[in-house]
Predict the structure.
Amino acid sequence: MGDARIYVTRRLPEVAMRILEQAGAVKVWTEDLPPPREVLEAEIAEVEGLLCLLTDVVDEMLLCRARKLKVVSNMAVGYDNIDVGACTARGILVTNTPGVLTETTADLTFALLLGVARRITEAERFLRAGQWETWSPMLLAGQDVYGAIIGIVGMGRIGQAVARRARGFDMQILYASRSAHPEVERTLGARRVQLEELLRNSDFVTLHVPLTPETRGLVGERELRLMKSTAILINTARGPVVDEVALVRALREGWIAGAGLDVYAQEPIAADHPLLKLDNVVLLPHIGSASVKTRTRMAVMAAENLVAALAGQLPHSVVNPEAWGDRGRP
Ligand code: NAP
Ligand code: GLV
């Protein structure tokens, strides 16, 4: 066992804990809810490694207390909960878990898309409420996914995995992304367009950008009003990419037909949030990557990243390699 001190903000699968224990003394926050801020502030002062979740905010104020910290390993691909600039300035590596969750998150995105289009949860609520009296021609009739136009915003790992699924449903694929992706255009027939054109023409708009200063509020009132009144918005990226107040109006007033959401401006969403009163939405509690296999792989990857950094090796997935500096150079 190494002699580093490590703090883990939630209990992880055993296989990941065993990896961490090789590197040093591991302390775990064992409650189900995240550690309170004062606990994190006290713990961070003592450790070389922090393994955290997307619910833990690692900001400048917290880092001011981190006298020995060398690495922050996030068990998520998104790292908008971490002030990466402040970590880099202190020579602290930030790592994440890309790739291992791509297909699982794309599956969930498609489940939401199908769920809203075919009114799955609404239909189940109807049945359970004892309202099903007979088969009738237009009962709970929804929209076809097969053959429709899908607009993918952010053609990265998850965007591409969604595009592959869309191809299987014979959908036409439009995408808007920072860069062109010629391989995706060639193999899946996707066409790159400006965001405005994508919004005007898509039957389904699905968001796969990270949350950054550029993408915060990317879909607001103007963008929602550009969409077809029959269109459906899917968000499995991050809540603040969409202006939620405008989205509620869009869904109530029929600017768009429906939405499928896994992420929200505030998580968990308040029990009295207006979205919960709407029938044309499917709402999930941020479970995009939540299969047993994938969550285990994410925990293992996060543990391996942390152990590598503490052993003086550049981890597999580093968000800020510039924080590494001259370490490890001959
Ligand atoms: P990724 O491979 O980095 O893909 C993100 C894509 O967004 C990249 O292709 C990038 O552009 C594009 N992009 C970035 N900024 C943009 C901008 N301003 N305008 C247009 N496009 C922009 O990341 P990923 O692995 O697919 O994950 C994407 C996000 O999904 C994560 O950051 C996370 O927030 C979210 N996520 C959520 C869940 C969940 O449980 N709901 C699970 C996993 C991930 P180019 O490549 O075109 O340059
Ligand atoms: C989940 O939301 C992730 O970013 O991995």
In short: Residues 77-78, 98, 101-102, 105, 154-159, 177-179, 208-212, 214-215, 236-238, 262-263, 286, 288-289 surround NAP (ligand 1) (CB under 6 Å). The CA atoms of residues 235 and 261 lie 5 Å apart.
